[in-house]
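Batch manifest line 221
LIGAND: adenosine-5'-triphosphate
JOB: complex structure
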Amino acid sequence: MELATSHLVVDFGPHRALDDVSLHFPLGSQLLLYGPSGGGKTTLLKALAGLVLPTRGQVLWNGRDRLTLSRGETRDAQAHMGMVFQTDALFDTLTVERNVALPLERKGLSAAAVEEKVANALARVGLKAAAQKRPEHLSGGMRKRAGIARALVMEPWVLFADDPLAGLDPETAAGISALLLEVSHGRTLIAAMPDPHPSLPLARTLRLTPMARDVDNRSTA
Ligand SMILES: Nc1ncnc2c1ncn2[C@@H]1O[C@H](COP(=O)(O)OP(=O)(O)OP(=O)(O)O)[C@@H](O)[C@H]1O
Ligand SMILES: [Mg+2]
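JOB STATUS: finished
ARTIFACT:
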């Protein structure tokens, strides 16, 4: 799957979060988005994943403006993208196993197929032993692993990782980086974090900084 943005602008009310961003991601690309808080990293990941609407410009999936796709086509395309969210977005009332199963259950797979895929995803991230635990009983690194397992369970072509090393000690961060590099093999990986991290050397980097001015040019400073 190929992703691109063309002159992408995203405004939130009077605030411009992204200004004229044009990027191209053939399958297998790697990009690290970095820069200060409010720079638009999460907004760009979500726009690429179709979770935030462009104000102007385009988000292209396999060359097609995603706003021209039908609901079904959008869902199918989104099934090929996995997002590790900045706030892990795990359901604390569900076990790790149930959390990871959610994307599959929405697809209507059989219980046996779900069980097998969930077991594989948990094994892949080293969380097999924690399958029956609830996220609130996991360490920060384990929660990240659970978030990665949930993003991976659909075998996506594109993996988005939003601030995956936040709040982790250096050793755990290095472990999560190694895991991301390993599971991104053959996929596109787009990661966001405040600063480049030596343990996650991606082929391309892009620095996003907060817009100096609001859309209406009235300074808020
Ligand atoms: N849903 C929203 N509604 C209004 N403003 C938003 C929304 N999402 C993001 N913004 C604004 O857009 C700008 C970019 O936010 P974004 O979350 O993309 O930054 P970020 O680079 O991910 O920051 P961080 O490093 O803190 O995660 C910020 O000024 C933010 O307040
Ligand atoms: Mg963010």
